[in-house]
Amino acid sequence: MKNHTNTAESAVLEPHSGIRQALLDLLKGRPELVARFGHFQAAFADQNLLPERLLEICRVRIDALHRLPAVAATQLSAEDAARVSTGDFSCLSAAERAILDLAEQMTIDAHGVAGEQITALSRELGEPGAVTLLTAIALLDTNARMQRVLQPLRDARRAANA
Amino acid sequence: MATTPRLNSAIADQPANFGSVMSHAPEMLGRFGVLYAQLWQSGTLPADLREMTRLRNARVTDCGY
Predict the structure, then answer these.
(1) Do A63 and A85 contact (CB within 8 A), yes or no?
(2) Chain B: nearest CA to A74, how far in angstroms?
């Protein structure tokens, strides 16, 4: 799964515009921080090391693990996205299932990630791809956690301003 | 707790550590560095609070790195 070409910049991570919008709303005094966060996030698409679909299935599952509302997927059918969100990976390839198992483990308990999983990931994606995917999983988890924390604040501010 | 890097260094003659392993994806690492520097070198929170937060986070997540 090396040397993939992404068709739309940040299309996969862009569904997290919710969190970026929440950041914009809450951190209006820190636009430089928001800009750098967005620039870092866009690196995953810019590098073309990972297929968008792979990033998206990770996002769908990680969001679900954090019990976030579903965000429409662009690389999966609605039916497959629903399956992935519930932990049913039967619609995925063996390589994708292995990567989602790793993404789940990192999200739930990073210490439980086995060395064999990293070895297999590196064999599948190469070391640049493995580093990129592990970082992307960490970012997706971070995004989901931030959304869990920030969304109620954002909702409260909107309600107060209504 | 795994504290031994499971991926190789991307930099010749340098041991595997966070920076040398992340260097497999230099563009991503560069952008992360810019964001990280922004968090640590400027902002509204006092430096000691940021440092305490970092240490507490490492403790809670059992991060030995």
Answers:
(1) yes
(2) 23
